[in-house]
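Allow me, if you will, to draw on your knowledge of protein folds for a short while. I am sending you one protein, given as its amino acid sequence and as whole-number tokens for its backbone shapes. Kindly check, if you would, that the fold set down in the tokens agrees with what the sequence suggests. The record follows directly beneath this note:
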Amino acid sequence: MLPTSSWDSRALIVIILVIAATKPNTVRYERSTVIHATPERILPHLIDFRAWRPWSPWEKLDPDMERSYSGADRGVGAKYAWSGKKAGAGTMEVLAVDADSVNIDLRFTRPFKNDCVVWFRCTPQGT
């Protein structure tokens, strides 16, 4: 049932704000897929931002976006920035590389601002 008066509307807004204020500031989103390859074959495609073009869905979404690379060529310190009409704008930097994982600092600047910590983990399963 929808509020019928301005008082009911204000009360509903206050309730929503109180509920929102009790929620955590962080969100964890996890996704997995099976790739028939060893971590040694996968990690080079993650630590070199120039190697993202063939597999990243964002590259396919906005193939005309502007890209720039700085810092190290690959691995810790490699940096990537993008700006496009459909993909928005942001930056990424490789923070850590292990034998089975990559940690990336991901910052969106457009259409919204958001800072994310991204982990790619390669977990061998069977053959």
Q: What stands out?
A: The two ends are 56 Å apart (CA to CA).
